[in-house]
Amino acid sequence: MSRFASYLYQVEAGIAGGQVAGVHLVGAVLIADLTGFGRLTEAEGDEAAAEVAIRFAALVREALAPGERLVKTLGDGVLVVSPDVGTARATAARIRHRVAADGSLPPVHAGVRAGTVVWRDGDVFGAAVNDAARLAEAAGPWEIAEAAPPGFPSRPLVLDLSE
Question: In this structure, what are the phi and psi dihedrals at residue 9, rounded to the nearest 5 degrees?
Answer without folding.
Answer: -60, -45
